[in-house]
Amino acid sequence: MELRYGMNPHQAAHATFPADGAPVRILSGEPSYINMLDALNGWQLVREAASATGSAAAASFKHVSPAGVAVAGQLDESARTSWRSEAATGSLTSAYIRARDADPKSSFGDMIAVSEPVDADLANFVAGVVSDGIIAPGFESSAVGVLAPKKQGTFLVIEADPAYQPPEWEQRDVFGLVLAQHRDTAPVRPELVSVADGPRLPPGAVRDALLGLAAVRYTQSNSVALVADGAALGIGAGQQNRVDCVRLAAAKAATWWLRRHNQIRDLPTVPGMLRQERLNWQIRMADADMTPSQLAEFGRLFPGIEPYLDPAERARWLARLDDVTLISDGFLPFRDNIDYASRVGVRHVVEPGGSSRADDVAAACADYGITLVRTGLRLFHH
């Protein structure tokens, strides 16, 4: 299959389907190389997350890492205000809204992956957001007709074969050298996150841990996910050291939580302003770091409204974020990872273990009353 282009527009590209059957079918649109990487990684993530948690799962993929991932659940007031005014939302749609709401700035122009066939409710919602495509194990009869005209007919609609099993070995060609390895098929299941010492993880934290493990398995390493109530609040991807992963994920989680403060959540809707533009202003308010020109524009658009929370109120609100689970694809090497995690309500840490300073990490968790789970399973992804 010819691809629209490779990683860059000046690179030609194509895809070769296996002789024993195609894992996906293109129903509409013409994918690029990165589109296919996002779609195939996203599909594997949501299939694994749904299997591990027993709930419909969705991911918002961007540049070969998830910007957000979630299972079906109730939309809180902030998510409903931002994304959906309807009284009823289907479970699959709720999973995708929760995934996209984790980091809506990054999810702009994403590849959507869902674990269940796309119904009319999700198709109609996706028709109204900026996205490049969707991959799912099927589509209701009306769904493709709703999605195919999107982006002047270039929106990608990809059907995954849920029965397809990839080869035992995977390989890639790098600078003429073919590298091969056994595919990572280690199961993600509740036994992986059992606690050897101390109280057991509550059921919600077990679900969050399993969701986070599925997420980091398909996130560019090094990676850390912060998960609460069945949804990622922040994902730190592709960093060269682990503490930067934690700090990035924590910053995104803090932004997600600050957007739920009424001063930011209730930012007025300006006539003619697109949903994404309003979201961007809310994110800037939460980050409290606007440029001078942005501050001037904010004052023009929202006269009489303070652009930032009072520092004391900001600290008070952040202190309310709680019951967050941190999942790391590799061991946490130093206690500073825990110090930063504690600032955004982390109460459970799930990591492979094995650091030479493992005792320091355990001591830091004990200092903050954090439950530490060591899985013994590294989940690097490159």
* Tally of DSSP β-strands: 13
CATH hierarchy, class of the largest domain? Alpha Beta
Mean pLDDT: 94
Integer count of domains: 3
CATH architectural designation of the largest domain = 3-Layer(aba) Sandwich
Widest sheet: strand ordering = 1-6-5-4-2-3
CATH superfamily of the largest domain: AICAR transformylase, duplication domain
Strand content: 15-25%
Order of helices and strands: EHEEHHHEHEHEEEHEEHHHHHEHEHE
**Gyration radius from CA atoms, angstroms:** 21 Å
CATH topology of the largest domain: Cytidine Deaminase, domain 2
Weakly predicted, low-confidence segments: none
Oligomer: single chain
Query: Which secondary-structure class do the elements indicate?
Result: alpha/beta
- Please tally the helical runs, counting DSSP H or I stretches of 4 or more residues: 14
**N-to-C CA distance:** 24 Å
| Percentage of residues in helical conformation | 25-40%
Textual characterization of the structure:
The chain has helices at 33-53, 77-83, 91-101, 104-107, 120-126, 143-147, 203-217, 242-258, 262-265, 275-287, 292-301, 311-318, 336-342, 358-368, and strands at residues 24-28, 57-62, 65-71, 110-114, 131-136, 156-160, 169-174, 177-182, 223-228, 231-237, 324-328, 346-351, 371-374. With 382 residues, it is an alpha/beta fold. The protein folds into three domains: 24-160, Cytidine Deaminase, domain 2 (3-Layer(aba) Sandwich); 187-257 and 318-374, Cytidine Deaminase, domain 2 (3-Layer(aba) Sandwich), CATH 3.40.140; 276-308, no CATH class. The strands form three sheets. A six-stranded mixed sheet has the order 1-6-5-4-2-3. A hairpin with a 2-residue loop joins strand 7 (169-174) and strand 8. It is globular, with a radius of gyration of 21 Å. The two termini are 24 Å apart. The model has no long low-confidence stretch (mean pLDDT 94).
